[in-house]
Amino acid sequence: MKTSSARLSGLGTTIFAEMSALALRTGSVNLGQGFPDTDGPGEVVEVAVDALRGGRNQYAPGTGVPELREAIAAHQKRFYGLDVDADSEVGVTTGATEAIASALLGLVDPGDEVIVLEPYYDSYVAVIQMAGAVRRPVTLRAPNFRLPIDELRAAVSPRTTAILLNSPHNPTGSVLRREELDAIAEVAIEHDLVVISDEVYEHLTFDGLPHIPITTLPGMAERTLTISSGGKSFSFTGWKIGWATGPAELVRAMIGAKQFLTYTSGSPLQPAIAHALGAGDAYFDDLRARLQSQRDLLCEGLAGLGFDVYVPEGTYFATTDITPLGFTDGVEFCRALPERAGVVAIPHQVFYDPSTSSGRRQNPGRPLVRWAFCKQPHVIEEALDRLKVLVTTGP
To answer: How many angstroms separate the CA atoms of 3 and 228, rounded?
Structure first.
């Protein structure tokens, strides 16, 4: 009896599931998976409660309820000056993960090559493989994790059809600068490529650094599908309300695949996220300030313990090099950490192309570990206190 398909070969269980299970089993502080330990605004929850009690519990339209599509279009206009048609250029999905999956399944054919920034969120690898496509990684390297523009250009071949972009970037926390986005745009236009842009951390950039959607650059609006969600911006990751905006034909292709995955979801939650998108500037300013403060608390604490810390420009995550403490392998380090210190983190190594850990070159993420700071300050402080054992006991 056949028990799995070839398209799942090598994918296994996600590192997030493995580490979260370890956290539960050992009672560890979970700085691994990127979800906040506090809920988002109470008034948004009340909108969802009203929708539940008001009978909005059946199928929503496949493209999303009208008020959410209109709120997404208004958001794009408010923050980026983009004119988006709510009826034809917006599609609502079951989280950004489904939007990415649907976009790749709807826009990429077997054998096509997709350029992707490495290290990459693990679902990228899975869906590119499921689509029968070939990934072409362009590696962001420590300590600055900047885009190597020459390597980007060299990655393009006659079979390249798409670039899967992510900024602010998970797991490195890098935010692409205008000159880097200009280079990506130049390549996309020259080779007539589609850009699928994952921007779920769009409101989580720090130190005054702006997020620039690549679709706002000249020549890019007609070839870019921009993806985001309510999970990261409003601390409702479990609601799984995501979306994509872009040219009608790209949105139509994404929805064409999405309709055979979930069709629709979260009917009473969609009007609540629509309400959240209309939040005043103070909400988004406070969110950034709070996360930046938590970033600084974690990064300063990890540096004080002896880690080399790469302070992120955005997202929920900070990266450290573990070698100053005598460790060399991030996977081994993270699997042992819950028992040794009662803390969970995520090894970078799993976010790189497995072929890079073969004889061709060592995996660049081997000594790197990702830590989440989307937790309350007292939780971060507890984790830092537990990690002191590493300094006293060593490898």
So the answer is: 34
| DSSP per-residue codes, 363-379 | -TTTTEEEEE--S-HHH
d(CA 111, CA 108): 9
Round to whole Å and give the CA distance between 205 and 174: 9
Kindly report, residue by residue over 97-153, the tens digit of the pLDDT: 999 999 999 999 999 999 999 999 889 999 999 999 999 999 999 999 999 999 999
Regions of the chain short of the pLDDT cut 50: 356-359
At residue 354, the pLDDT reads 67
Nearest-CA neighbor of 343 among 302, 384, 393?
A: 384
Q: What angle is formed at CA 331 by the lines to CA 151 and CA 376, rounded to 5 degrees?
A: 95
- 175-213 tens-digit pLDDT: 999 999 999 999 999 999 999 999 999 999 999 999 999
Contact 321, 142 (CB under 8 A): yes
For the chain, list the domains and their CATH numbers.
6-40+282-393 (3.90.1150.10), 58-279 (3.40.640.10)
Contacts of 189 (CB under 8 A, 6+ apart): 219, 220, 223
β-bridge partners, 165? 197
Q: Which of 195, 205, 219, 213 is nearest to 173 (CA)?
A: 205
Ramachandran region, residue 132 (left: φ > 0; alpha: ψ -120 to 50; beta: rest): left
Beta strands (DSSP E) in the chain are 29-30, 90-94, 113-118, 134-139, 160-166, 194-198, 224-229, 241-245, 308-310, 317-321, 343-344, 346-347, 368-372
Between the alpha carbon of residue 126 and those of residues 18, 116, 144, 258, 346, the distances in Å are: 17, 13, 27, 16, 18
Question: Under 8 Å CB-to-CB from 55, ≥6 apart: which residues?
Answer: none
